[in-house]
């Protein structure tokens, strides 16, 4: 039955109405049992350096195997967690789990970095910095190996708050990446106002680079913008050799995408590190 209700048959509206009628307490219970039963887990996608031919980082991506709905993609369920506020406990779990995984790789001698996704909604929680420090200490993780990828999922009304939260995070030594750059309404304004360390160009631009002159121009402009700001770029969504060669030619050296590897489990990622690095 789980298969009949698989993700392909569930559009966002159906998904929301299925989960919406559950009240917050029910949803909270569901989250708790999903975490306990391992129905929510992380996979990792390598970020690959075209200069050194090494994996330099992993991006942690959350996965949820719902008992009745089946596999739900984070693009669908993260917004629901944001709406209900449960993104906060989920985010804490994700951060802890990711740090544990990073410590494990490091203890095996692999000095990769780890990128973790945060929505702006997650930055606005009480004791954020204390929680981050506690988790780092507990897992013996060096913050210099962490990148927080920020995605614009909501409109910020008081940007000053976020400027200082982001500065506090950077003071810990954690780097900040602007994720999906170029897709949000406020990408440029955030770039101008927030102190960030990395730009991740959204995959929608690279997807259409061959067919759309406009997308190619936008892509190249972002590359040039990042260069002028001295910001490293990660290009996500590289699926073909042609795309890889194109971005290399225009000076983008860090890529992430199915061409190199899909997101994989922590153990498989460890094996890939042994093979590659
Ligand atoms: P994102 O952070 O931009 O992550 C990249 C997404 O692109 C991932 O989708 C990844 O599987 C997919 N992807 C990677 N390479 C390729 C490729 O070559 N081609 C295509 N077509 N897709 C590729 P995923 O895992 O479904 O995640 C979707 C979004 O959900 C993420 O976008 C991120 O915004 C959010 N998300 C995922 N995990 C977390 C999390 O732990 N916390 C939060 N707050 N958000 C998360
Ligand atoms: Mg990301
Ligand atoms: Mg992205
Ligand atoms: Mg995204």
Automatic annotation (TrEMBL):
CDD domains: EAL (cd01948). It comes from the Bacteria. Gene3D superfamilies: EAL domain. SMART domains: EAL. PROSITE patterns: EAL. GO terms for molecular function: cyclic-guanylate-specific phosphodiesterase activity. Residues 24-277 form the EAL domain. Transmembrane segments: none annotated. This is Sensory box/GGDEF protein.
């Amino acid at each position: 039955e789980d298969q009949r209700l698989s993700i392909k048959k569930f559009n966002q509206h159906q998904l929301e109405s299925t989960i919406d009628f559950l009240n917050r307490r029910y949803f909270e219970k569901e989250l708790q049992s999903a975490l306990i039963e391992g129905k929510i887990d992380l996979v990792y996608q390598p970020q690959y350096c075209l200069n050194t031919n090494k994996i330099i980082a992993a991006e942690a991506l959350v996965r949820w195997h719902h008992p009745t709905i089946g596999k739900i993609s984070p693009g669908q369920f993260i917004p629901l967690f944001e709406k209900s506020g449960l993104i906060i406990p989920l985010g804490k779990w994700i951060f802890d789990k990711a740090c544990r995984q990073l410590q494990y790789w490091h203890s095996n001698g692999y000095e990769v970095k780890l990128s973790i996704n945060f929505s702006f909604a997650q930055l606005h929680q009480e004791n954020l910095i204390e929680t981050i420090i506690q988790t780092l200490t507990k897992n013996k993780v060096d913050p210099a190996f962490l990148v927080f990828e920020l995605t614009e999922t909501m409109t910020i009304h008081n940007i000053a708050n976020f400027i200082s939260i982001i500065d506090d995070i950077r003071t810990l030594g954690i780097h900040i990446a602007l994720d999906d750059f170029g897709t949000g309404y406020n990408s440029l304004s955030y770039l101008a106002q927030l102190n960030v360390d990395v730009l991740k160009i959204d995959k929608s631009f690279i997807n259409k680079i061959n067919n759309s002159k406009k997308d190619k121009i936008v892509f190249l402009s972002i590359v040039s913008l990042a260069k002028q700001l001295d910001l490293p770029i990660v290009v996500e969504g590289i699926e073909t050799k042609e795309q890889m060669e194109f971005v290399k030619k225009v000076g983008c050296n860090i890529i992430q995408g199915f061409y190199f590897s899909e997101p994989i489990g922590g153990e498989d990622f460890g094996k890939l590190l042994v093979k590659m690095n």
